[in-house]
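@channel anyone free to eyeball this complex?
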Amino acid sequence: MTDQQNKYEHLDEETLFIVSQTFKALSDPTRIRILHLLGEKECNVSEIAEELSLMQSTVSHQLRFLKNLRLVKFRRAGTTLFYSVDDEHVMTLLHQSIHHARHD
Amino acid sequence: MTDQQNKYEHLDEETLFIVSQTFKALSDPTRIRILHLLGEKECNVSEIAEELSLMQSTVSHQLRFLKNLRLVKFRRAGTTLFYSVDDEHVMTLLHQSIHHARHD
DNA sequence: TTATTATATGAACATATGCTCATATATGTT
DNA sequence: AACATATATGAGCATATGTTCATATAATAA
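replying in thread with the prediction:
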């Protein structure tokens, strides 16, 4: 019988990058609040800003961040852009974490 | 019948803090690698450093971070400290995310 | 076209983050 | 006690991050 050393299987670079990026998106209170709100209902930018008491600019910047990671998407209605969530996996991670935070 | 406005239920400050802290812990490649390794097997500090090609100091700093959040724990054996994971919820989040990253 | 409304963007700034170096501390050994 | 080994810690530094301000862009209305 050969040695059973069971060498540790490293995480590959790409997986590590995707995973860290995903969690980074969820690591900021403002982005969490935006995602949580969009999880409840589709919203346009100014609705988000008002509901969460944030500057329009702040919301817009964070939406760009979330859109780059394909965590949110939008549809246009005239000059208004309605944003909604676009990654159910990530929303599941968020909701699980919220649930744990409340019950631990 | 009264209006059914369904006002949005805000996340409370404490939940928001815990959730963002948790995801912040998982947002850094080095911490992800350490947690993933500890998920496979208990390790002492120098084993982690060698296995992941990190400076002892870097590992020690990150372990302190993870320990403060109670994501890892340790037992002492002489001058050697053996670290292991201490939050199954968070490890579940990590493994789910790795799985999604690989299959999407 | 001009004006209006909604959203996006870039620059500037303050703060946070992660790494490395040097050194401290703690336990065990001789 | 003196020494060796394992780990922890603080300072310094470079980079990343999040917000705000001012302004640009885009669609629509008059």
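from a first look: The mean pLDDT of chain A is 96.
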